[in-house]
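Re-run requested by the PI after the first attempt was lost when the workstation crashed. Everything re-entered from the original request form. Ligand of interest: flavin-adenine dinucleotide.
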Amino acid sequence: MPEVVVIGGGVTGIQASLDLANHGITVHLIERQPSIGGHMSQLDKTFPTNDCSMCILSPKMVDVIRHPGIRVYSCSEVERVEGEEGDFSVTIRKNPRYIREDLCNGCGDCIQVCPVEVYNEFDAGVGTRKAIYKPNPQSIPDIVIKDPVHCVECGLCYDACLLDAVKKKEEPVLIEVHASSIIVATGYSVFDPGRKKQLRYLEYPDVITTLEFERLINASGPTGGQIRRLSDGKKPKSVVFVQCVGSRDMSIDRPWCSCVCCMASIKNAILLLEKSPETDVTICYMDIRSYGKGYEEFRERAEAAGVKFLRGIPGEVSGDRGAMSLIVENSETGEVKDLKPELIVLAVGIGPSLQADEISEKLGISREASGFFKSLHDAMDIVKTNRPGIYIAGTAVAPKDIPDCVAVAGAAAMHSFIGLMRD
Ligand SMILES: Cc1cc2nc3c(=O)[nH]c(=O)nc-3n(C[C@H](O)[C@H](O)[C@H](O)COP(=O)(O)OP(=O)(O)OC[C@H]3O[C@@H](n4cnc5c(N)ncnc54)[C@H](O)[C@@H]3O)c2cc1C
């Protein structure tokens, strides 16, 4: 039976795995995090249809875990790759979860008794989780993980688990699999706006990122979908989205457009006005890039809903943390405005995933100067790499929206499949 390794379990890796497994190929899906889903599982709705993100992703995640042809390795990374197209040997390092995966049924009794509450990465820092936890309510695999850094070893979870699934100690395990080809779908990381000190991110609590906004407006997020200021819990009367934070910015060596930020802010502005029509919502932009199917109509819908579009990017957040000021010149009229938003949302750009350099080295595949993986040809061979049998897909190649990720995932699966047919 032919086998393929897929690295990264975001929407791209999920789609590629399903496409292959549905054609009788055995897939080894390697995901670094405790759950598959990637960034899409953190989003509230998706443009331009405003579908609930998890409502369209979750059935695919369930299909993956239930598929007899897909083996999911969560909390796992690639240790090394040897061999060549048609005969790769991939060593997977499965990091400790401190849970017996074969015993845990995801009941959550251990979470209830855990006394420790810490920062929740999944809620982009605006919510908390326990030291033993599920990354999100729809995690796949649907089991818990224990975080050894914050666990105080109080012992309550051991007593609460009637299945004896919680472990005190666990070592990483190396697993070797063989594959004819490999698909790299390791996705993206969002820009850290702390690099632009003038934007006061993490200095002023009411300067947040679009990813944090996604969690705030999500009904299953930390505020139950209510937009609240982190400083005082109050509903903001005015919100300004600032575009191109970490995109198209030569001063920080990030000249590329992140493709999704314009539409993501427009989406969030519409959702905000649906929830609180009285809020004053402005988007400060350089250009609005509404290039996809239905995207320009989506922008028009936002305008009709009352979203203000101001062409100009503010240089800094000034004022003080209780009375923020954004001075911006409208480049269409020359008028200088001093906006006084009660909440500022930074539309953070998309960059290469944090371990792209490591993956590139271990797999022997090239990267662009930007850090994204390099296609054999940017127009005609986007999923092939310099190494035959290793393909790239989704935002691991360049910033992309979900429809493009799904399409390119299918292309990578097809190329992989064609390679297998040749073997
Ligand atoms: C704020 C915001 C809002 C957005 N809204 C929309 C929207 O409404 N509509 C839309 O179409 N697009 C939207 N996008 C874009 C969308 O998030 C992406 O197009 C899509 O999620 C990319 O999927 P992916 O699988 O390529 O990458 P990711 O979602 O990043 O998945 C990559 C996966 O690979 C794993 N991984 C990384 N490195 C390794 C490794 N070394 N080993 C194993 N696993 C690894 C990661 O943990 C992750 O699970 C938005 C983006 C942002 C930032």
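Saved to the shared folder this time. The longest strand covers residues 76-84.
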